[in-house]
Amino acid sequence: MALISSLCIFVLVAHFSTPIVCHKRPHQAALFVFGDSVFDAGNNNYINSTVSFKANYFPYGESFFKYPTGTASNGRLIPDFVAEYANLPFIPPYFETGKKHLVVLAETNSGSVIDLSTQLKYFKNVGKLLKMKVGKTESKQILSNGVYIFSSGSNDFVAPLLANSTSPNYDRGHVHMIMGNLTSVLKGIYKEGGRKFVMLNLAPLGCLPSVRALNLQKGVTNGSCMEKATNLAKMFNSALPKMLKQLKKQLPGFKYTIFNFFKVVADSINNPTKYGVKISETACCGTNPLRGIPSCGGNGQVKEYELCNNVKDYLFFDSTHPSEHAYQKYSELLWNGTPDVVAPYNLKFLYELSI
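Above: the chain's sequence. Below: its structure in token form.
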């Protein structure tokens, strides 16, 4: 049974978490996207979340979509560019009903922490939906040849950090807990048939405009990066490859690659012109200092905000999220980059690899 010309299944499984599978034609690898706000194309519009975790108002989406889709940037995100490189249909920035899209909305509580157990539970529905749509044999092929791309973990650290005036006392035990939850999800996806996984490690969290602004509030007058927050990212990033190597030993056929998001974001902050931008510490949209107060759009607690004149000059669009231009540069490196930024395979190689 052949797939219809363009089949996309969207499954909203938890706050800030959106698995997406797009499959364009038979024998073409599907793309599954699991993400936090770095990957969310606007699905937070449809869940019981607070305004501060939504981006469905101006000026979000202004550069590409020309209207606020819910994307936490001025335009497209990494999954959008990846879909383009893979010749897949453009991933819609919001849940659509009809138009050959199959949509599943899972109940979720408001909050900023990804519920990975719920994420896995509802991912299993993808397999059931695929079997109903294309049959057991082809659904198995789609799941095994599909690429599963993850951006996860940043909310577990940044959201509590910004919500409190004092830094949470995280330790390696907290990182171990997060890694354990992620391991369970990967094993669950593997059990359903997934074999090819792409993981983004964490960016230098202490250098986000929002965290720099928090540092200023704490009396660090030069607006430098918060070392403690960046060290948390480093702890996560150190544990991630160890966990994936263990899974590779345990699970036959398990393939993975890691995109060094930490390295490319740090490099673009320190060398902005290399990435085609001029300003890398101050956000385009937000409230001073550094436009790091999360007020873009004025729908949160802080109503007043500033918006830059030329977003193409900025690495960050709002206080925590890169601009579309930055995402495009990062996507190019993820798709076709060298082993110093994406290893052991780039996404293009992994995508074309048959299982």
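The first strand starts at residue 7 and ends at 12.
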